[in-house]
């Protein structure tokens, strides 16, 4: 349901913009506000799951649901092989949700109205709630700990200010409100870091970031999420505004991207065994880099675009599954809520910031091309190409992270040399 939320609106954005007086910045916030609020509350959701109980938290709300879900997986499946399979299923269902989202979004917009896309949570939420009552184990809370609500508010405000500033940059690089917001966000997030470092029981488990594999996995998740959600958003705009597709046709054109992700997710356990988590992550990053690089050329071919998106999609589970596995391997049971959620927070923050940056690149490029005399479709094609160029840069940075993680997680090879007599 969480991943479905992140993609179902992508297909509806052009229809929303056509019916409502919404400019590019407002349309960006349609996605960013949801992703940002969800991601900003994940840390608090992890603490709630640890303090009030994971099953109870799972039934309350999106940020609490996701935080509790991952901590439930880590708490129930503690045998390494079982945990690897469980994390694969958890990530694969997220990919399935994203795939269903683009198709359902297109179907609803075309057949009924874009407004129905915002009601999709009701049947899914009811089913998940009933299923949780019947099947989830009654995992007890860890210890009596404070919820740290002021700290959660500080983190939310800092991330919101950063995203708002990045989105406002599309109005011009000298926009005062953009830089003021970014400056305020820097102060708030710095204050948050200093406060948390002085706490005996911090909401933000910064001590985990001292572990190289943990913070590298966190950075990798941030970059992978930026590529994932921004790719589907850019592609939806491209299909509908450049090739004049309906919302349903655009959703179906995005389907190969989701199906490629799902197919790879099914064989991820075998790939992890064969390549190791670091090696699999490296393969996923290379796939994303190639796909984004092709789309950065500003191609006008629908077939090439779909194939490149499928390549990006194939790289998604190859990134998310090993990164969650590498990062969560260092999380203690009593910190399974906030420890695993910190990884998820990097994931969702990457999605929110990715939309903010890519949307700004798209809007400024398109506006500049139109001012230079280009037609709207040609200007949008160039803007989408520049957006994918930015994603290719993200994938290139991730490539460096992947090479380091592969080195750090590579199992030592046994010495097969014969002893000298």
From TrEMBL:
<feature type="transmembrane region" description="Helical">
    <location>
        <begin position="387"/>
        <end position="405"/>
    </location>
</feature>
<keyword id="KW-1133">Transmembrane helix</keyword>
<dbReference type="GO" id="GO:0022857">
    <property type="term" value="F:transmembrane transporter activity"/>
</dbReference>
<dbReference type="InterPro" id="IPR036259">
    <property type="entry name" value="MFS_trans_sf"/>
</dbReference>
<feature type="transmembrane region" description="Helical">
    <location>
        <begin position="246"/>
        <end position="268"/>
    </location>
</feature>
<dbReference type="InterPro" id="IPR005829">
    <property type="entry name" value="Sugar_transporter_CS"/>
</dbReference>
<feature type="transmembrane region" description="Helical">
    <location>
        <begin position="274"/>
        <end position="295"/>
    </location>
</feature>
<protein>
    <submittedName>
        <fullName>MFS transporter</fullName>
    </submittedName>
</protein>
<feature type="transmembrane region" description="Helical">
    <location>
        <begin position="147"/>
        <end position="166"/>
    </location>
</feature>
<feature type="transmembrane region" description="Helical">
    <location>
        <begin position="85"/>
        <end position="109"/>
    </location>
</feature>
<keyword id="KW-0046">Antibiotic resistance</keyword>
<feature type="transmembrane region" description="Helical">
    <location>
        <begin position="26"/>
        <end position="46"/>
    </location>
</feature>
<keyword id="KW-0813">Transport</keyword>
<feature type="domain" description="Major facilitator superfamily (MFS) profile">
    <location>
        <begin position="1"/>
        <end position="410"/>
    </location>
</feature>
<keyword id="KW-0472">Membrane</keyword>
<keyword id="KW-0812">Transmembrane</keyword>
<dbReference type="InterPro" id="IPR020846">
    <property type="entry name" value="MFS_dom"/>
</dbReference>
<dbReference type="GO" id="GO:0005886">
    <property type="term" value="C:plasma membrane"/>
</dbReference>
<feature type="transmembrane region" description="Helical">
    <location>
        <begin position="58"/>
        <end position="79"/>
    </location>
</feature>
<keyword id="KW-1003">Cell membrane</keyword>
<dbReference type="Pfam" id="PF07690">
    <property type="entry name" value="MFS_1"/>
</dbReference>
<feature type="transmembrane region" description="Helical">
    <location>
        <begin position="178"/>
        <end position="195"/>
    </location>
</feature>
<dbReference type="InterPro" id="IPR011701">
    <property type="entry name" value="MFS"/>
</dbReference>
<dbReference type="GO" id="GO:0046677">
    <property type="term" value="P:response to antibiotic"/>
</dbReference>
<feature type="transmembrane region" description="Helical">
    <location>
        <begin position="215"/>
        <end position="239"/>
    </location>
</feature>
<feature type="transmembrane region" description="Helical">
    <location>
        <begin position="302"/>
        <end position="326"/>
    </location>
</feature>
<feature type="transmembrane region" description="Helical">
    <location>
        <begin position="116"/>
        <end position="135"/>
    </location>
</feature>
